[in-house]
């Protein structure tokens, strides 16, 4: 049964709102700082009530430091038993949501270098990974996502996924044509007739579209973007960044 796309909820504004708030605070700080000393004049002094104050004198700045609370993005974890693009148990204490693109070289690199290092956490039941394609690179990316979903319907999602990122590299747009994608399915021993039908099925189109829209809604306009235990990590950061985040989350879950 086809699943519905992400419902309208506050989460679509979480990342954009955070960016706006931080930008607003920076602007406010600049305004306060400029207003506290008056305008500068050519002789190195500052205009204002005390014209003897030089530009080099310390200015009075507000003592209060305003902290911006980061939004909790754990609600982006679906924890859905029917979600085919996942690894790890439903009740794993830590989850990573990955927003990716099959034409993104940094996504391919992360999949090849970092993802295998997380396998131990998945096998131990400590980590769940939920993969979602944003398809920011266009038609070929969207077609590759549909192919991966069609493979998932034959319980071969990760094998097919890894072929699209084989060796930590992306395939050329020409190699992501429908014929080429069916050939990959054949190499993996899948039922190619069923695969081709599933790749163009309405359920597949709907699910791929829903995943992409979710990524755009939360502001994941570049790939890869990760949500690790409710916190955003942007870009293919070094493996240690992810391991440290997982270890911290596991410690918090054990408290």
Task: Quickly list its features.
9% strand; 2 domains; 9 helices; disordered N terminus; five-stranded mixed sheet; 43% helix; 255 residues; alpha+beta; Glutaredoxin; 5 strands
Please write the CATH class name of the largest domain.
Alpha Beta
What is the overall shape?
globular
Strand order of the largest sheet: 1-3-2-4-5
Number of helices: 9
| Poorly predicted parts | 1-13, 17-56
What fraction of residues sit in β-strands? 5-15%
Summarize the biggest pleated sheet.
5 strands, mixed
Q: How many domains in all?
A: 2
Work out the number of β strands. Answer: 5
Structural class: alpha+beta
- CA distance, first residue to last residue: 38 Å
At the third CATH level, what is the topology name of the largest domain?
Answer: Glutaredoxin
Helix content: 40-55%
Task: Tell me the CATH architecture of the largest domain.
Answer: 3-Layer(aba) Sandwich
List the helices and strands and how they pair.
Elements: H1 14-37, E1 86-87, E2 94-100, H2 105-113, H3 119-123, E3 127-133, H4 139-152, H5 157-164, H6 178-187, H7 192-199, H8 202-217, E4 225-228, E5 231-234, H9 239-254
Parallel strand pairs: 2-3
Antiparallel strand pairs: 1-3, 2-4, 4-5
Helix pairs in contact: 4-5, 4-6, 4-7, 4-8
């Amino acid at each position: 049964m086809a699943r519905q796309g992400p419902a309208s909820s506050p989460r679509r504004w979480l990342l954009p709102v955070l960016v706006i708030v931080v930008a607003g605070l920076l602007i406010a700080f600049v305004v306060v700082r400029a207003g506290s000393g008056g305008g500068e004049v050519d002789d190195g002094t500052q205009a204002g009530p005390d014209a003897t104050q030089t530009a080099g004198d310390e200015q009075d700045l507000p003592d209060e430091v305003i902290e911006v609370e980061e939004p909790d993005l754990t609600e982006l974890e679906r924890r859905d038993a029917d979600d085919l693009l996942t690894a790890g148990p439903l009740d794993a204490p830590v989850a990573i949501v990955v927003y990716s693109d099959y034409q993104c070289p940094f996504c391919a690199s992360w999949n090849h270098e970092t993802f295998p290092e997380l396998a131990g956490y998945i096998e131990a039941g400590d980590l769940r990974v939920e993969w979602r394609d944003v398809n920011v690179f266009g038609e070929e990316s969207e077609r590759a996502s549909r192919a991966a979903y069609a493979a998932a319907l034959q319980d071969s999602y990760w094998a097919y996924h890894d072929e699209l990122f084989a060796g930590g590299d992306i395939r050329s747009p020409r190699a992501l044509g429908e014929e080429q994608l069916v050939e990959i399915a054949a190499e993996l021993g899948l039922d190619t007739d069923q695969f081709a039908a599933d790749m163009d099925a309405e359920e597949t189109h709907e699910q791929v579209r829903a995943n992409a829209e979710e990524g755009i809604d939360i502001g994941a306009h570049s790939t890869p973007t990760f949500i690790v235990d409710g916190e955003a990590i942007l870009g293919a950061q070094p493996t240690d960044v992810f391991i440290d985040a997982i270890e911290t989350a596991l410690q918090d879950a054990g408290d």
